[in-house]
Amino acid sequence: MKKFMLRIIPVALVAVVILANCVFAVDIPSGNSSKSTDKIVGNIWATVMTIMRVLAVGAIVYAGVKYMFASAESKADIKGGMIGLVVGAVLVFGATFLVDLLTNTANELTK
């Protein structure tokens, strides 16, 4: 179970980052509805990314505590799992930064 969790969390982080960048466009005929839709999508994006950040940091802290209390034989396995966790966390935080940067740049260009 422990190895499963240390392997599934980075994969889940990568999957969420990849799927969260998909665009599902909907043609809304009313002019005011698009702004409310943008706010809803923005709130969902912010919520998902906040949850992923908390999970990434929590998984790294959990693995670190396990590493501190592990025997010398199991420390190598934990180190291997932590590499995946760190890569997943970098992807989550990097995707958030990149999307925010692109959104702010696009908003500045359209003004």
Description:
The chain has helices at residues 2-20, 33-69, 75-110. The mean pLDDT is 77. Helix 1 (2-20) runs parallel beside helix 3. The protein is elongated, with a radius of gyration of 18 Å. The chain has one domain (2-110). The protein has 3 helices and no strands. The relative contact order is 0.16. By secondary structure, the protein is mainly α. Helix content is 83%, strand content 0%.
Mean pLDDT: 77
What portion of the residues fall into strands of 2 or more residues?
Answer: under 5%
**N- and C-termini, Cα separation:** 52 Å
Could you estimate the helical fraction of the residues in percent? Answer: over 70%
> Main beta sheet: strand number and arrangement?
none
**Number of domains as seen in the coordinates:** 1
Q: What is Rg?
A: 18 Å
The parts where pLDDT drops under 50 for at least 5 residues are none
Brief characterization of the structure:
With 111 residues, the chain is mostly helical. It is 83% helix and 0% strand. The N and C termini lie far apart (52 Å).
What key phrases describe this protein's structure?
0% strand, mainly alpha, 111 residues
Tell me the layout of helices and strands:
Layout: H1 2-20, H2 33-69, H3 75-110
Helix pairs in contact: 1-2, 1-3, 2-3
